Amino acid sequence: MNCFRGLFVLLLCFVSVFAFAQIPSDLSAIKASQIPDAQLQQYLAQAKAKGITLDQLEAEMLRRGLPQSEMAELKLRMKQLSQTGASGDSPADMPTGISQENGKRTYNRNLLLDAESFESLRRRSKIFGSELFSNSNLTFEPDMKMATPKSYVIGPEDELILNVYGLNISQQTLKVSPDGTVNVKYAGVVKVNGLSMEAASALLRSRLIKYYPGLSSGQTKLELSLGNIRSIRVILIGAVNRPGTYTLPSLASLFNALYVSGGPAENGSFRNIELIRNNKVVEVADLYNFLLKGNQSSNVRLEDNDVIRVPYAKTMITLDGELNRPGIFEMHNNETLEDAVEFAGGFKSKAFKGRVTGKRYLDYDRTVVDISGDSLAYFKPKNGDEFFIDSVINRYQNRVLIDGAVFKPGQYALESGMTLKQLINKAHGLKEDVFTGRALVVRTREDLSKEYIAVELKPIIAGHVDGLVLRKEDSIHVASIFDLKDTTTVTINGAVRKPGVFRYEDGLSLKSLILKAEGYTDHATGLGIEISRRKRDVDVSRSGSSIVEIIKIDDNKELANSSTDVELKPFDIVTIKEDPYYKKQISVKVSGEVLMPAVYTLQSREERLSSLIQRSGGLLYTANVNGAKLIRKKTEAIDSAEIRRLFKALNKEANPLAEDKLNDTKLSAKDGAIQYSSQWMDYNVKALGKDSTLLKLELASKKTTEVAIDLNYILRHPGSKDDITLEEGDELIIPRINNTVSVSGEVFKPVDIMYERGKSMKNYLSDAGGVTQLGKRNKAFVIYANGRSAKIKKALGIFRIYPQMEPGSSIFVPQVAKKNSFDAGKAGILISGVTALITAISLMAR
Q1: Does pLDDT of 340 surpass 80?
Q2: 668 near 640, Cβ under 8 Å?
Q3: All residues at 6 or more sequence positions from 109 whose CB lies less than 8 Å from its CB, including other chains
Q4: DSSP class of 743
Q5: At 512, is the pLDDT very low, low, confident or very high (cuts 50, 70, 90)?
Q6: Which of 339, 448, 636, 644 is in Cβ range 3.0-4.6 Å of 335 for a Cys bridge?
Q7: Which CA distances in Å does 174 have to 14, 204, 304, 498?
Q8: Are 792 and 800 contacting, i.e. CB atoms less than 8 angstroms apart?
Q9: What is the mean pLDDT of residues 229-254?
Q10: Read out DSSP for 554-616?
Q11: Beta-sheet strands, E only, within 593-711
């Protein structure tokens, strides 16, 4: 075994040596930019074929003397080439940042920046302008389909298209050679390197005019355009996120190059970016001109071997608070804090403009600076300054408030010398229910303590005086007469269309209250109306003394008698009785295997099941008589406490938030049907982590119950005690004959098995593969089609008697109850306690 392992290691070393053999042994003088893309792609392909990773390749190159700085650039190129190679649609010598599709080169920034780089850009989001280089939707991608600019300078690898049309027609594709020449038909070799498109077009026209005479008369036209563009190399240095050499399309501009490099670094300048060409600074770009004004005058087109230098920012300040665009901003020496506020989009509406507070770094510590609002235009920030613009004080200069019995309560502006009468007029006057005794004025003193002033309203209403002269922040409350007495009510219950509690009004009669409750119901009787009235002279010292006065009134349903004109008093409770000789219809439902399934109305309150079967046309031959079941609505109400108990039973560790929500929910039960909000239900399902179907089934199961019946016996003995009397909402379900037996629970193969007469429960369990180790055989039970169940019994405590099987039955084998595992910690505590007890007894005995 060790021999084979050694052989494998030797073979792996041989493969690695063979792959690395293509790399020169001494790389100390190698520049990463000198290695062609094609050769680097070849190295990568060989390493991938031999199973060598980029990290292993990097380690080998460093071992052979490649400088660390060159390795960093080379590693970036290898990563880019591996990404382009993986896509399968880019050639090995494709320049960085350019992909090719249908023979055309396109710009692709994703080849240059990976996810890690984008994440680092997001961390700089507070720096104003950084979003320009971290937003993937803003690419500054050069337009490859635009018309060729006349100023475009031609260079090697460009592809020119020469069109001659008119009297003469000719088209040529001219490839610019490395020495900058093109071979033109008739004109021969023409040097175009360094010429603009306009100059090259004029040169070719002068060379071809003798071959195409129509060019001089204008009858023949010559057009020179750009077919496929070349690539240029641009160097980015300084405070750039990804400095290095980049290969870009020749139409690329300064902003394109900054974008592919990730833009200025965290401490890099956005306002002094230098474009160096032929060792001279030809442009100094200020990105703020573009960010604030949309000015792209600095976005000049690049040329081969251009150098872009991003210096470090000299002055950067932080603005925060009530500004439209808080962040970190770069400042020029001649710019003020007012300019910085403009860079931040200006103040928000609630900004405090009177003073700006800032912090400044000194040589040894920090200091606080305060700048008044009128000094912002003169104050010049320093590097590292931090300024915070606070919001205005939450205080009003001229506010007074009025509420209560006025038509337009609210806040009003305090005018000089304004009186209470003038404020009431502003509030459109007093309501009819105003309490004319007095109004209350709450005044805020200078020390913010409160002073309460009572003002008489009658003289103000009469016009004799104007009232109190108001001050800032005065709050006036004008009371209503209804605010100063209890709200009295009357209650009506029983057989009215809208029972409930109604507001008491002077002169309210019984007839008026019945009309407020929208009249009698159809089953009401006007006889025996009772009014329960509070007594104010209860003899509390005598046992059995009445605490209410009962007033009985007889009327008819037309409210024609004068007896209903009796005047009510506050807190009266009226009871309207039902007609004892009027009964609603009782409806029951028959479904399943009967001749005429439908909803039937009972002929009498004592009608039984056998009569219902007879009225529905009798049973069909496909009916499973033994599986018939009766579903009955529960009559008892289920209150919110029962619902709460159900949820706690489902999850003993109920979420406190769900419990609070449950306590706030209005739950009620009416006619046995639980009323609850589905929104509340969904909230608690999520909070308790339970399945909504399970909860709804649990709640639904509380509404109805199954009544076990023996329909076969009932049909043979109609009118017997087993022939159940029907009730409102009952549903009789006659299932179809099911000749299978279902076996489920802790068996090896839950299955439905064809019913066989005389086959025992034990045999059905064997057909399901038997009981598993977790199953409890002696607790298995049978559920029959009609809902009845039966379990295994033991004769004399020894012999098992299995239940009789019927078609449509289900056998269920429960799981053995889990036992608590041995707790060594608790056992140790117990043993320690027993030991201490024994020791104590021993010492006492001695």
Answers
A1: yes
A2: yes
A3: 97, 139, 141, 259, 260
A4: E
A5: confident
A6: 339
A7: 49, 12, 21, 95
A8: yes
A9: 84
A10: ---TT--SGGGGPBP-TT-EEEEPBPTT-----EEEEEESBSS-EEEE-SSTT-BHHHHHHHT
A11: 598-601, 629-633, 668-670, 673-675, 704-707
